Amino acid sequence: MKIITVCGSMRFIKDMMDISVKLELEGNCLLMPIYSPTRSSKKDFTEEEAEMLDKMHKERIKIADAILVVDVEGYIGESTKNEIEFAKSFGKGILYYSSLINKKGVD
């Protein structure tokens, strides 16, 4: 079992949920970013709230063995790029959605 934190643009929330279910059914523990249908972008939060959410997401990355970058059609936004660098600084594994969707499982 691996603990995996999901990272990516919230515009891909459906893809995040779909791959998370698949990986959990394979025996992994997935940590997801907070999602609210009524607050779907950072501009829907106060600056303090957005900072707290970013801080908590970094804590999920610290806890994880790896992160899963949901890079639909190759898209990786600036926040996700920063999360990748943050994960690398802690020696975390980096998995990419685009590499997993045609493969079975996580090694």
What's the topology here?
Elements: E1 3-7, H1 13-25, E2 29-31, H2 47-63, E3 66-69, H3 78-89, E4 93-96, H4 97-100
Parallel strand pairs: 1-2, 1-3, 3-4
Q: What's the overall geometry?
A: globular
Mean residue pLDDT: 90
The helix-strand sequence is EHEHEHEH
Number of strands: 4
Spatial strand sequence of the major β-sheet: 2-1-3-4
Structural class: alpha/beta
First CA to last CA: what distance? Answer: 9 Å
Largest β-sheet summary: 4 strands, parallel
Number of helices: 4
Radius of gyration: 13 Å
User: Uncertain runs with pLDDT below 50, 5 residues or more?
Assistant: none
Helix percent reads 40-55%
Q: Approximately what portion of the residues adopt beta-strand conformation?
A: 5-15%
